[in-house]
Amino acid sequence: MRLLAATGLMLAALSASSGLIFASEAAESRLLLDRMNTAMSQMSYQGTFVYVQGDQVETMRITHVSDKNGVRERLIAISGPPREIFRDSSGVRWVLADDASVFEDQGYNRSFFPELPVDQQGSIEVYYSLKVGNVTRIAGHQARNLNVVPLDQYRYGYDLWLEETSGMLLKWELIGNDRKPLAKLMFTDIRLGSAVDAKELEPASQMKKFKTVESQLPSGRGYSKTAPTWKPEALPPGFKLRAHRFYAEPGQGVYEHLVYGDGLAAVSVYIESIKPDSALQTGMSRLGITHAFSRTHDDILITVVGDVPGVTVKFIGDSVKIAAH
Fold first, then answer.
1. Strand pairing of 211-214 and 45-53?
2. Where does a domain end: 200, 215, 230?
3. Domain hosting residue 312, numbered range
4. Measured between alpha carbons, how far is residue 40 from residues 71, 118, 257 in Å?
5. Is the dihedral of CA 181, 184, 188, 189 positive or negative?
6. 304 — pLDDT class (breaks 50, 70, 90)
7. The whole model's pTM is what?
8. Which ranges in 188-235 belong to alpha helices (H)?
9. DSSP per residue over 238-259, as a string?
């Protein structure tokens, strides 16, 4: 009996110890995500990074300044065709080398790096398993690994490497359902805070020279705080409406753009008027890590696009209906 009692006490102690370890790791994971969110949204940073997707390898230079004037971000291509992108509170402008135009989209001002909304941090563990990993050296900085594993088939996973002092994201990998990397991004050099040279925000000559053309993408046509006209009747767990844009003009048809996200993954739903005799290719398609699903409903084309598994865009696309108000 004494042996059984001692064994029971030992198991209880081990169980309590294990619970404290798990609770501690969960708290550390949330702290790392919170610091990453703060660093990516409030810090100024500047550096060169390499983006790899399949056989495609790109080298980019980014300058991101957050100050009293808001957030301004300039991204230029170092390898491949010359490209330049500038983002601020007014939206995004970009230059392509093979077209003497500067495109402007006032409806798009997201960062080019993953962002974690603060209001999702309390519930992200419901949809992802978080595990803190080892420390390694990236771009001259010590970086802590955070493994983010999805708990269902509707989202990809992430491997994040965060600078230990600031929480700045120095490397990330997008992980497929087979646990293999789908895309990678890593800084090769980076400056933080006051070390950033804000002069690099100045646009190149082509952005000043070329004529600005308004984007014809639905996402660039107006912004609306009203309830969506069309919306999905069902969503994967955790996905909520993040943004809504609506545009309608007599004789020009209707465009509607909705963004749904779970705090890490995001999908866009586009609603567009079409002519009754339009010959359109519908169904599932894929380009790199991006899946798209489209279908028609009378004179409406419904398209769902996102860097998520194909099952996610089809699930959402099949459930889009005209909203009941």
1. unpaired
2. 215
3. 218-322
4. 11, 12, 25
5. negative
6. very high
7. 0.76
8. 205-209
9. T-EEEEEEEEEETTTEEEEEEE
How far apart, in Å, are the Cα atoms of 77 and each of 58, 62, 74, 115?
8, 9, 10, 22
Count the domains in the chain: 2
Structure tokens at 224: 């609306």
Looking at the chain, the whole-number percentage of residues with pLDDT higher than 90 is 35
Residues 271 and 240 in one domain: yes
Shared domain for 128 and 275, answered yes or no, is no
Task: Retrieve residue 29's tokens.
Answer: 């994971």
Domain end residue (candidates: 152, 181, 215): 215
**Tell me: the pLDDT tens digits for 77-124?**
898 877 888 887 776 777 766 555 554 554 444 455 555 444 454 567
On the CB side of 258, CA atoms within 13 Å amount to 24
Same-domain pairing of 248 and 165: no
